[in-house]
Every structure is written in C-alpha cells, then in structure tokens.
Design a protein that fits this description.
The chain has a single domain, classed as Transcriptional coactivator/pterin dehydratase (Gyrase A, domain 2, 2-Layer Sandwich). With 107 residues, it is α+β, with helices and mostly antiparallel strands. A 4-stranded antiparallel sheet has the order 1-2-4-3, covered by helices on one side. It contains 4 helices and 4 strands, in the order ααββαββα.
Length: 107
C-alpha cells in the first residue's frame, strides 16, 4: 500500500510533481536513527532525569523553529523520539530527515 498516494486521494494540496520532493526514492537515514514502519525512531539515554529534560528543551526549540514536532516518550533518563510527517499521511519525508539531523547536532 502506498500511503502517500492513498492520502493524496483525500488531500489534493500535494501534486504528483511534489511527491519526489516530499519523499525521495532513497531516504538518507541519519546516523543512529532507524526507520520503523513509516517513522524515524531513535532512543537517547542520559545519566539523569535533568539531562533528559535539558535535551528535550533543546529538541522543543528545534521543533518550533522548523514547525515540525516529534512524538516524544520520556521515562526518567530515556527519551524516544519518533518522526513522521502528518501532513503527508504519516510517512517519513525530508522534513523528518532535516529534523533528525538537527537533533543529532545537539547531543
């Protein structure tokens, strides 16, 4: 099933010519991230709860600046981030790659 094409049936704001721009044929998955289903996922482990909190504050600033927000699961010193583009039918797009690279830059 091609979720992007299925999604396009319901939302004509994305043209066929934009599909490759949104989701290139070969995604370059950033270091440490894994593609799980239609998401980029990465776990981050810190020494303390406060270190995890500081990291998430930085992630929040990046997400706001890019207007693209991750799904966050946080348990004490472990943070799992999950990225997909909701506007494109919950698939991995260049927006997710860009945010993942930026997040890698803050650790």
């Amino acid at each position: 099933m091609n979720r992007l094409k299925d999604w396009k049936i319901f939302n004509e704001s994305i043209s066929d010519s934009q599909v490759d721009e949104i989701r290139p044929a070969t995604l370059q998955i950033p270091q440490g991230w894994n593609q799980k289903d239609e998401r980029l996922v990465k776990d981050f482990k810190f020494d303390t709860f406060r270190e995890a909190q500081r990291f998430l504050n930085k992630v929040a600033d990046l997400a706001e600046s890019q207007n693209h927000h991750p799904q966050i699961e946080w348990t004490y010193n472990v943070v799992e981030l999950s990225l997909s583009t909701h506007d494109a039918g919950d698939i991995v797009t260049n927006k997710d790659i860009k945010l993942a690279v930026a997040i890698n830059g803050i650790i």
